[in-house]
Structure formats: C-alpha cells, structure tokens
Amino acid sequence: MKKAAFVNPNFYKTLCLKLKSPENLLKGKARVHYRKSILVPKFVGITFNVHNGKDYLKVYVSENIIGHKLGEFSGSRSRYIFKSKKIKKNKKK
C-alpha cells in the first residue's frame, strides 16, 4: 500500500494565491521551508528557493521531478574533506 501525496496545506494555499499574480514566482522569490512536500503537476515551470538549513537553493520544477519531495533537490549536508598533514622539515644545527 502506497502513501498518499503530502503537500502542506498552508504552502499550497499561498502558492495558489501567488499563481493568480505570478510575477513573484517567475522571479524565484517563492521561499519554501516545507522540504517534505511532494511536487504536484500544478508546480511545473515554477522556481522555488528551498531552505536547506543555512541557505536557499533554487529548484526549478520540470516534468521529470514530479512526485519527488522538495528536500531531495537541496542537499543539507556538505561534504567534509580531510586536510592533509603538513610535513615538518628537520632542522639540523
């Protein structure tokens, strides 16, 4: 049994209101904190700024990513790189 698609009701209401005046959506000013909301076909062609905990990353919704969650496209973990050790020079006196 598969779960139903979840879209936060507050997010969906505000988005539907902004779709009536899409100037803000086309400029990419739609900021989103609801990373667990699933993308539905009504969102195609909209650019969201999805919060990853630190910054807002732009996510453009195309037909290929319908059904996925918003959080999948804005990674919240950065890659850690180990620093190489400095080689000390032996000084002889």
Structural notes for this entry:
The chain is an alpha+beta fold and 93 residues long. It has a domain at 25-73: Ribosomal protein S19/S15 (30s Ribosomal Protein S19, Chain A), CATH 3.30.860.10. It contains 2 helices and 3 strands. The chain has helices at 9-20, 23-26; strands at 30-32, 47-51, 56-60. It has a 3-stranded mixed beta sheet with strand order 1-2-3. A hairpin with a 4-residue loop joins strand 2 (47-51) and strand 3. The radius of gyration is 21 Å and the shape is elongated. The protein starts with 8 loop residues before the first helix and ends in a 33-residue tail after the last strand.
C-alpha Rg, in Å? 21 Å
Tally of helical segments: 2
Unreliable spans are none
CATH class of the domain at 25-73: Alpha Beta
Counted beta strands: 3
- Side by side, the strands of the main sheet go 1-2-3
At CATH level 3, the topology of the domain at 25-73 is 30s Ribosomal Protein S19, Chain A
The largest sheet is: 3 strands, mixed
Decide which structural class fits the backbone.
Answer: alpha+beta
Shape: elongated
- Residue share in helices? 10-25%
At CATH's second level, what is the architecture of the domain at 25-73? Answer: 2-Layer Sandwich
Order of helices and strands: HHEEE
CATH H-level homologous superfamily name of the domain at 25-73:
Ribosomal protein S19/S15
Beta-strand percent range: 5-15%
**What is the average of the pLDDT values?**
79
